[in-house]
Batch of 2 targets.
Target 1
Amino acid sequence: MGSLLSIGASTRSSQRTMVSRLLPCSVSDISLAKYATNDLELIIAPESATFKAMEAAKITLESRYPIVIPTETVYGLAANARDPEAVSRIFTTKGRPSDNPLIVHVSSRKMLQSLLPESYQIPSSYEKLMQAFWPGPLTLLFPTEPSKIPSIVTAGLNTVAMRMPSHPVALAVIEHSGMPLAAPSANSSGRPSPTRAAHVWDDLGATGKVSLILDGGPCEIGVESTVVDGISDCTGALKVLRPGGVTVEDIRATLSANLKEGEDLPRVLVHRKDYDDTALEQQPTTPGMKYLHYTPSVPVILLLPMSKLQEERGEGLAQILDSLILSMAKPDLQGHLTVGCMFSLDSLLRSQLPSTRNFHFIQYDLGVRAEPNIAARRLFDGLLTLEKVGVDVILVEGMEEVHEGLAVMNRLIKAARDVRSVRII
Ligand code: TXA
Ligand code: MG
């Protein structure tokens, strides 16, 4: 395969020596038509580099090794969801605890139906959400049984999480291989999710932990899918287990816009905001509760800007930075502290960065405050970029928990070693 770009990282795994390959895929080689039934027609330009990459993907998946695929949310580490041995390699490659279940990715309504229990009737709330947001960053929980999905995928639960991604390369891999793909984010367990192929290369490629990475460009959404459980509540409420790329506001608006006569509007409850569930919080199935999440190798400090009314509770930014120098064992101030700053472009914190020689600031902006979708897109890239340039610490400015800001804050609270209230002067 002449067009394959082979970058020669290799390592000896317990089964075989793997050489990682990074293959570029172009979205313009894939033509896609969406039908109202949630079925798609997909054509990959023959002879194109993308087609050759699809062939390589199919061969690797058939040989039961995971591959890395781009999705619109984050890159995923994918294997045939019907094959327990292939799926087990996802867990070993990531170092993922086996009690944390995986999302299954499908490319058509037909494939979805083939994975559901025969007699199962999809509820009307799901029909509306799938119509509005599939293909896209919404994951729904469905009932399942081991004859349809092996229990290694679901960690033995009686539900399975499924979504139809919208990235043409992800859809093309599923279609071309004919396999539903189980895929968590393509990072070593506990690290930030990758939103560029280069992030995956640094983490899993350079050490030969995966044999094939498909490069489909930077992920447009940048945070993972919204995970919704619409089947476990006896009152018909939908529970948002993990906020993500589809906002809670959009879910509520979709459900209320398409209400038929006599139909009740289901409540949409957000975990940790509208309800708590202590039993569930002990389990890994409440996404990201039990295990370390989203943490780069440098400490992340979440700054919560205080309003004028609350400001006596906060510290000044200079005070926080001074305390960091002390706590990070640089008390002599011989060297300086290199601080990564992830602030919005119109942040009031920018003018408060002290100009002493003790600090060297590297900025990675999160777009403007009025556009939280940009912050979502740039969040993981910011953490990984600043980690790579070698900062000592990353300061991230918190944002309002509305629209995509809810998903951003959900990730930041988990990534942060410390949360500090900061006074705006
Ligand atoms: O956007 C995404 O969702 C990405 C891309 C690759 O599709 N995938 C992703 O997968 O974020 P992962 O494994 O990193 O996160 C999936 C989350 C996990 O926290 C898991 O606990 C939860 O979904 N989950 C999976 N199956 C579940 C189930 N049956 N019940 C409750 N939670 C489940
Ligand atoms: Mg993940």
Target 2
Amino acid sequence: MRIFCEKDYVSLSRRAADIIIGAVNKKPDCVLGLATGSTPIGVYDMLSSACAAGKVSFARVRTVNLDEYMGLAAGDPASYRAFMNEHLFRRIDIDIANTHIPDASAGDENIRCARYDALIESLGGVDLQLLGIGRNGHIGFNEPSPYFSVGTHEAELSQSTRRANAAFFGNDENAVPKSAITMGIGSIMKARSILLLASGEAKREALTRAVRGNVDPMVPASVLQLHGDVSVICDFQID
Ligand code: F6R
């Protein structure tokens, strides 16, 4: 595990964007695993600028996102599909048909989750997975639990996660959906390479427990200690 403690959010975003641009330039048809939330917005801005400047092309890239809220109407501006379109997909030269987000519409979620895992397999697996971290150590929407999840599944969101995500729902935590479809810990660990971002003092404790503590499903990100190719980028110091 490589840990880069950067001086601020811009430097964190720059380092992460450079790693992603390097991966895409090395393998133009790579599969990127992507995250939403506040943390990667700066990275997505830099990727969009680099694409506009001709420094990278996403024309052949395929993407799979980690998660999507359950129970939102198609096209809801708070959906992760809308987030990705706004912050990245509409701003780069990617073919939108090559962008994939878990299907959180009504119906049998077991079938839809199995289809998402099969889709990732059919793309050849994820080359580079981008992750944020929750204050409780979650990755994707894999919340602290007595065991590590395996594949894509429906997950109940903890109260602290709903509170943290209220900003995207008019600051009303009751408006944040109670569950989501998320890639599992097993799916994340299959990525060939992983990039974990943590920005702000509020993430220090979770990140420290994840990278310095025991591997423990109550700190889901700690499982990354068992992966052979992880880069962690934060904008604070950790001991
Ligand atoms: C988002 C996701 C979440 C976030 C995490 C941190 O797709 O899977 O695990 O990465 O909740 O969110 P921010 O970046 O908003 O602090």
